[in-house]
Amino acid sequence: MNPDHSKKKSLTNSTGADATNYVSVAHDLRIDEQVEDNSLGARTLRKVAWRIIPFLCLLYIFNILDRSNVGFARLGMQEDLGMTKEVFDIGFGMFFVGYLLFEVPSNLLLQRFGARRWIARIMITWGLMSCATMFVTNVTGFYLIRVLLGIAEAGFFPGIILYLSFWFPDRQRARMIAYFMLAIALASVLGNPVSGSIMHYLDGHFGLHGWQWVFLLEGIPTVLLGVFVLFYLTDTPQQAKWLLDEERAWLVAELEREDHDRRVKHGAGHWTAMLDRRVWLLIAIYFTVAVGTNATSAYLPSLLKERFEGWNHLQIGLLSSLPHLAAIATMIVFSRSSDRLVERRLHVAAAALLAAIGWAMIAMTTQREIALIGLCLAQGGMMAMLPVFWAIPSTFLSGAAAAGGIALINSLANIGGFFGPIILGQYGLWPLAVIMLCGAALAMCIRREQIETNMKGTT
C-alpha cells in the first residue's frame, strides 16, 4: 500500500465544479488503497448517517404530528363543531387535494433551489397552517385549511427520499430510509399520549378547547425547526465541510458511479419517469398502503375507544402507542433483511401480507385483546413496507427523473389517503384486508432483475 499524499492534498472544498476531480482522485485512491477502501466507505457512511438521519427523523416526527393529529383531535373537534362522521372523513381526506396538485412541482423546485432552503420553506408554511386549524369554526373552514395544509406539506416526504439518494448508495438506502421513517411510529408513540394529555389537561384553559391546544402546541415547534433547517442541512456531499477530504471524495465517487449507470440505462428526464411502467406499478402498490395507513391515522383512536369503553383520552393515547411500537420493530427487521439479502419485492409483499392478516383479525373478532394484536400486525406490516418500497425508485431513476418520479409516485398513490378513512368509515375493516392483499400481489409483479442491478454493484 503506497498512498499518494499529493493527490489527497489536491482535494478542495469547492462545490459542483470539482465533482469530477473528486471522482478522478477517489478512483485513484481506490486503486492504490484497496485495503483501506472498505473502512473508508464504512466510516464515511456512518458519519453521514449520524449527521443527517436523526435530524431528518425529528423533522418527520413533526410532519406526521401536524398531518395526523386531526385524527386524535376528532375525539373532541367533531362534536364541538357539530360535524357528522362522514363530513369529518371528507375533511380529513381534503388534505390530499392540495398535496396531489403540488407534489411534483414542489419536488422539482427542491432540486432547483436546494434541499436546505426548500425543506425550510415547506416546514415553516405547514407549521403555520397547522396552527391555523385551531381557528376553524365550520365545515367550509375545515375543508379549506386541510387543502392549504396539503399544499404547504407537498414535497416534504418525496423531497427527503430524493435527498437521501444524494447521500447514500443504493445498497445502504433501505435501512437509512427505515431509520428516517421510524419517525412515523415514534410520532404516534410519543404524539398520541402528548395529544391525549393536551386534550385532557388543557381543555377549557383560556377559553380554548383541548383540540385547539393540540394544533397550536404541535404546530409552533415545526415553524422553529424550519428556521433551524437553514443553518443545519447541507445540500450535497460536495458542500459537506464536516467530512474529511478523502471521505468526501469517496462518497462523491460512489454516488457518481451509480448515477452514471442509471443515466446510461434509464435516462434522466422527468418525462422518462412519467412514461415508465415500473413507476406506475409502484404507484399502484403504494396506493394500497396509503389507503391502509391513512385509515389508521384517521381511526386508530376511535377503533380503540370503541373496544376499550370507559377509557379516557390519556389512556387511549397511551394504548394507541402499542401498534406503533410494533411498527418500529418490523421496519428495522424488514429493512435490514432487505439490504442484507439484496432483495426488495419479496419483503414488500411479505409486509403487505402481514398487514392483511392484521386487518382480517380485527374484522373477525369482538375480543379487544385480539383486536389490539391485529392492529399491531396491521400497522407493523404497513410500516415495514415503506422503507423497502422507497428504496426501489432510485435504483432506476436519476436526476430530474428521480425528482419527478418519486414525487409522482407519492402524489398519485396518496389519493388512497383520501379514500382510506371513507372506506373504513362506511364499509368497515374487511376491505382494508383485501386491499393489502392486493398490495402483496402487485409487489410480486415487480421484476427482480430490474431493480437490483445497481444494488449488487455497491459494496
Give structural notes.
The protein is mainly alpha-helical. It has a single domain (56-456), classed as MFS general substrate transporter like domains (Growth Hormone, Chain: A), CATH 1.20.1250.20. Helix content is 81%, strand content 0%. It contains 21 helices and no strands. It has helices at 5-9, 19-32, 34-80, 85-113, 115-132, 139-153, 156-165, 170-202, 210-232, 245-266, 270-275, 277-307, 313-319, 321-341, 345-364, 368-390, 399-413, 415-427, 430-443, 448-451, 453-456. Helix 3 runs parallel beside helix 8 (170-202), helix 4 (85-113) packs parallel to helix 6 (139-153) and helix 7 packs antiparallel against helix 17 (399-413). The relative contact order is 0.15. Residues 1-36 have low confidence and may be disordered.
State the main characteristics.
459 residues, mainly alpha, Growth Hormone, Chain: A, 81% helix
Write a brief caption for the model.
This protein has 459 residues and is mainly α.
Give me the secondary-structure topology.
Layout: H1 5-9, H2 19-32, H3 34-80, H4 85-113, H5 115-132, H6 139-153, H7 156-165, H8 170-202, H9 210-232, H10 245-266, H11 270-275, H12 277-307, H13 313-319, H14 321-341, H15 345-364, H16 368-390, H17 399-413, H18 415-427, H19 430-443, H20 448-451, H21 453-456
